[in-house]
Amino acid sequence: MRVILVLCATILALPAQAAEMQGYRATYRLTVPHPAEGIAQVEGRMTREVRDTCAGWFAEQDAQIDITLHDGTTETAARQSESTEAHDGRAFEFSSGYASRSTTATLTGTAARSQPSAPWQLRFSRMVSGASGAPQTQQLSADTLFPVSYIQALVQALENGEQAFIAPLFNGVDPNPLEYTSRLMPARPLPGLPALAGLRGWMVEQRMDGQDAGRAVLRQIAENGVLVRTRETTDLGVLNWEAVEITLLPRACE
Questions:
Q1: Phi/psi zone of residue 228: left (φ > 0), alpha (ψ -120 to 50 degrees), beta?
Q2: Can you tell me the distance from the alpha carbon of 191 to that of 46, in angstroms, rounded to the nearest whole number?
Q3: Which residue spans within 172-226 are E strands per DSSP?
Q4: Of 2, 94, 115, 132, which cross-links 172 as Cys (Cβ 3.0–4.6 Å)?
């Protein structure tokens, strides 16, 4: 089953001169009200932590999806990822792993540049089901953003009242940059979770070039950069990831 797309959906990033980002730790629950044909039930859970380490932003995510078919058989898919993004805009380190009953895969590497206006030099290696690939290098454009810098730039665009946002994202999970066209919707108060009391949030519809409108990803993001919920149409059905607990974190060096 194509469950990798499900687990890749959530880590994003921010640049140094945009809106102020708040570190946080969150737990999310997955619901799928109407699973795809042949699937009886889909359940999932995810934890996510974004932390300011003073030298840079550290992001860690651990997600698991449990799929039950109508014949009673089950399949579990898990994705783990972590990355560190330097505040000076010159370095990014990442590692990620995926595991299911039939496949395991890892991706590790770094991206670096001599100055903030220069292109990125990406170096990475992959391992699939125990077979290691040769180390690879490629160049990323100077405007490429990473998991934390992407969110911050997106929040800044929302704060500015812009209606669309386009930027290449390298998430450390897929070896190729992704480019979403984001349609930005007006801010509104966030209901529910105490950690977000009094904050505004935005709904953001994201779609890759040529992607059918029905496959667009819908995210709700708080003004401090916290991801609140995600809705995505996949081969498993419509996946709804929603935060059930959020704790805001201080800077590690304070």
A1: alpha
A2: 21
A3: 178-184, 188-189, 200-208, 217-222
A4: 94
Which helix (H) or strand (E) is 159 found in, with range? Answer: helix 147-159
Name the residue among 10, 7, 5, 8 with its Cα closest to residue 219. 10
Contact criterion met (CB below 8 Å) for 46 and 39 = no
Whole-number pLDDT of residue 16: 33
160, exposed or middle or buried, with CB in 10 Å at 0-12, 13-18, 19+? exposed
Tokens of 103: 């496949």
Tokens of 237: 């059905």
Q: How far apart are CA 239 and CA 142, in angstroms?
A: 33
For the chain, 254 residues long, the average pLDDT of each consecutive 10-residue run is 40 41 95 95 97 92 96 95 95 96 95 94 94 92 94 90 91 88 88 87 86 79 94 93 95 71
Contact 217, 232 (CB under 8 A): yes
- Supply the pLDDT for residue 213: 60
